[in-house]
Amino acid sequence: MPRTLDLITAYYDAFNRGDRGAMLALLTEDVAHDLNQGGREIGRDDFRAFLARMDRCYRERLTDIVISVSADGGRAAAEWVVHGTYLADDEGLPPARGQTYVLPGGAFFAIRDGRIARVTNTYNLADWIRQVAG
Predict the structure, then answer these.
(1) How many angstroms separate the CA atoms of 103 and 122, rounded?
(2) Which pLDDT score is estimated for 72?
(3) Where in the sequence is the domain holding 123, given as residue range(s)?
(4) pLDDT of the residue at 45
(5) What is the pLDDT of residue 94?
(6) pTM score, whole prediction
(7) Left (φ > 0), alpha (ψ -120 to 50) or beta: where does 66 sit?
């Protein structure tokens, strides 16, 4: 269990530092990434492309991170608050004009062989749209 807690903590520390290479190193090669209210992408290369899109469209920092780990260390969950700026238009979403937002969210993780094998992110998309559309 402590190893999983350290793994997820390292993942979010890397996110907040903007160290995408460190984030990717914590994932299995075949990581499953469930996008909020979207589909599933498989593989580290798809996750890398997702991070590149996120970095182009958003600047985000997570605070108030709370991590819970299953007794066997095979699964974890995290709750956080994202503080962000919408930098560039993201397909299917309102136009970007540098809007800021603050939004609670969370993620679920599956762990395999000491790496993250699944990331499922969730947040209230309608609330985010309300914040950036106004």
Answers:
(1) 11
(2) 95
(3) 2-133
(4) 96
(5) 94
(6) 0.94
(7) beta
Residue 84, Cα to own-chain centre: how many angstroms?
A: 13
Secondary structure (H, E, C), the chain = CHHHHHHHHHHHHHHHHCCHHHHHHCEEEEEEEECCCCCEEECHHHHHHHHHHHHHHEEEEEEEEEEEECCCCCEEEEEEEEEEEECCCCCCCCCCCCCEEEEEEEEEEEEECCEEEEEEEEECHHHHHHHHHC
Two tokens, residue 23: 């984030």
Q: Which CATH number belongs to the domain containing residue 80 in this structure?
A: 3.10.450.50
At 1 the pLDDT is 60
State in Å, rounded, how far the first CA of the chain is from the last one.
43
**What does the alpha-carbon distance between residue 114 and residue 121 come to, in Å, rounded to a whole number?**
20
Neighbours of 128 (CB within 10 A): 21
Predicted pLDDT of residue 79: 98
All residue ranges of the chain with pLDDT < 70 are 1
Number of domains present in the structure of the chain = 1
pLDDT tens digits, one per residue of 63-96: 999 999 999 999 999 999 999 999 999 999 999 9
**10's tokens:** 């390292």
